[in-house]
Amino acid sequence: MYQAIVESDLQKLYPGVEFGQSVSIGSGVTIGEGTRISHGVRIYPGTSISSHVSILENTVIGRPTVLPRSSSLVKRQLSEDVPATIIESGTVIGASVVLYRGVHLGRNNIICDLTSIREHCRLGDDVLLGRGVMVQVNTQIGARTKIMDTCHLPGDMMIEEDVFLSTHVCGASENTLGREANQTKWSGPYLCRGAYVGANATLLPGVRINENAVVAAGALVTKDVEAGTLVMGVPARFVRNVSDRIK
After folding, report:
1. How far is CA 30 from the centre of its chain?
2. Sign of CA dihedral 121, 132, 218, 214
3. Do β-strands 24-25 and 134-135 pair in parallel, antiparallel, or remain unpaired?
4. Which of 47, 65, 88, 99 is most exposed by smallest CB count within 10 Å?
């Protein structure tokens, strides 16, 4: 099903592309001119990589979902009809990153080492994901958003443009703690344009952080945050209006 391709063969198939050692490429993969793919990278079938993309060591692109046929551990079943992964031009992907099938990365993204992005996620242009970020299924991230190291973004989360999440921000997408046997609905937090979230903040399912709102470090957000306000505490409460508009 997959064929190991030595470096010389890759150069013939993809002129103008630089390859390291032990690169594995599945059928139907397209790679644009000026792209650099380092040692030990695996690219699954159908993946589309545009021009001037950099992919560092031991990264996996377009990984299909592999689940046991029957398991009580798996609450959410994904459709088998998942589109191929797309990476647009100028994006840099760090070492040991895992991008599942159905991911779409915009132009000039920076995806740092050890990050993982699950199925049906889409990132706009100029997005930064720090080291060790986890992005769960069906999450959307708008242009120019910055998400710092080890943040956890739950499934079905929506993040608009120009949002900032500091380190260790954690979101959740369901309130039952996995106790519902037949759960079919998930609702991640919604972060509007210009929202800022401080380090170690926790965002509960379905909360809406409105435009230019600020969530202080360590806050537990249990309800919507009004536009242009600062909240802090456990649970998070209104402190004051934000005087300077975040552009």
Report:
1. 22
2. negative
3. unpaired
4. 65
Nearest one of 240, 234, 213 to 224, comparing CA atoms:
213
How far apart, in whole angstroms, are the C-alpha atoms of residue 227 and residue 63? 38
d(CA 11, CA 16): 8
* pTM to 2 decimal places: 0.90
d(CA 93, CA 86): 13
Q: DSSP letter at 36?
A: E
Q: How far apart are CA 226 and CA 224, in angstroms?
A: 6
Question: Tokens 């509007």 map to which residue?
Answer: 192
Residue 137 C-beta-side C-alpha neighbours within 13 Å: 13
Q: Which residues contact 215 (CB under 8 A, 6 or more apart)?
A: 195, 196, 197, 198, 201, 203, 209, 221, 225, 231, 232, 236
Name residues whose C-beta falls within 8 Å of residue 197's C-beta, 6 or more positions apart in sequence.
Answer: 163, 164, 165, 166, 169, 191, 203, 209, 214, 215
The model's pLDDT over 67-117, given as tens digits with 9 standing for 90+, comes to 766 655 555 666 668 999 999 999 999 999 999 999 999 999 999 999 999
Q: Catalogue all structural domains in the chain, each as residue range(s) with its CATH number.
A: 1-65+83-121 (2.160.10.10), 136-175+188-247 (2.160.10.10)
